[in-house]
Design goal:
- It is built from ten helices and 14 strands.
- It is about 40% helix and about 20% strand.
- It starts with a strand and ends with a helix.
- A hairpin with a 4-residue loop joins strand 4 and strand 5.
- It is an alpha/beta fold.
- It has an eight-stranded mixed β-sheet.
Length: about 325
């Protein structure tokens, strides 16, 4: 495998304890050392992701807001897919007409006019208020809106939204809270860009998820696992399930199992990189050995061979520097 993709809430992050498994973190780091790329694919905005998660795992890219905003490993935007201005205007109008609370994702974070059941639900999910902007002038942030969230206990009102926005997907993310975003965008669509970037295909992918918004990537990945969350929302999929949730002892073992990279799975460039890594290690080892021999010759044996040993050590050090320079290029 060349690429591992993880959902966040309920997959990497345990919803009850709001913690990561250190064993899972270590298994991911080990996979990355072997050259495997790791993506985070989440419904969250990057501004709402806890710092302790971003500090624990050095992701190679981010598929955020269910594929609507793609970020590189430095969290810089690669591409985004905002809703049309017309859809945003009509969604806002319908919410005001039915007196429904709403909020939306923007480039800056999640914006709401005031604290409402949506922001409270998000605070419950995230365990904090980071990335949630409360501002009466919320429309000042509407230059790019990626998904629109409403709160409704009225099924008839929801049906009005469904009928009016047939080209948008409606998903529940919390009781009575619903996301609206483009049907043409999902996690799998966002991941496609990274497949091209990392020069691999879905055949090279292992994906982990737990919820309905993960289905697109789980169905396309060569190998996929569902993290058991006791909700049975994905039982209809013929995909293996990891019992015990994100903190399961089985989870890191499965990551380790798929961290093995077969030589025939590597491109010619990747083979050369690995060969250069081995050459660098061997060259540095030889340089260090000659240096030690030189010290022994000078101070213990007290003969003139130290000149030869130090010269050979210098030559090997120069070769190591050249290999390192080529590797950086």
């Amino acid at each position: 495998m060349k690429l591992m993709i993880f959902d966040l809430d309920g997959t990497l992050l345990d919803k009850k304890t709001h913690t990561l498994s250190q064993e899972v973190v270590d298994a991911i780091a080990s996979a990355q050392k072997k050259g495997i790329k790791v993506l985070l694919a989440t419904g969250r905005h990057i501004e709402t992701i806890d710092l302790f998660i971003l500090n624990a795992i050095a992701f190679d890219g981010y598929v955020t807001v269910n594929g609507n905003i793609l970020l590189d490993k430095n969290k810089n935007k690669i591409v985004d897919y905002p809703l049309s201005k017309e859809d945003f205007t009509q969604l806002t109008h319908l919410c005001n007409q039915h007196n429904l609370p709403f909020a939306f994702h923007t480039r800056q974070g999640i914006v709401s006019e005031k604290d409402n059941p949506i922001t409270q639900a998000l605070e419950t999910i995230h365990h904090h208020k980071d990335g949630i902007i409360i501002d009466e002038n919320m429309h000042d942030y509407a230059d790019a809106v990626y998904n629109f969230m409403i709160y409704s206990e009225d099924k008839e009102a929801l049906q009005v939204f469904n009928d009016h926005f047939k080209h948008l997907k409606m998903e529940s993310f919390f009781p009575h809270c619903y996301d609206f975003y483009s049907k043409s965008i999902n996690k799998a669509v966002g991941i496609e860009l990274f497949l091209h970037k990392f020069k691999c295909t879905w055949n090279d992918v292992v994906a982990f998820g737990d919820s309905i918004n993960d289905v697109s990537m789980l169905e396309k990945a060569n190998i996929a696992y569902i993290i058991d969350n006791n909700k049975n929302t994905l039982d209809h999929l013929n995909i293996p399930m990891i019992k015990g949730g994100p903190l399961s002892s089985e989870f890191p073992q499965i990551i380790q199992k798929h961290s093995k990279v077969a030589i025939n799975d590597l491109t010619s460039d990747e083979v050369l990189v690995r060969m250069n890594d081995n050459r660098l290690k061997m060259t540095l080892l030889i340089a260090a050995s000659f240096f030690i021999f030189g010290i022994q010759s000078m101070f213990i044996a007290q003969n003139d061979r130290w000149i030869l040993y130090f010269s050979l050590s210098a030559i090997m050090s120069v070769l190591a520097a050249l290999i390192m320079r080529k590797k950086k290029q």
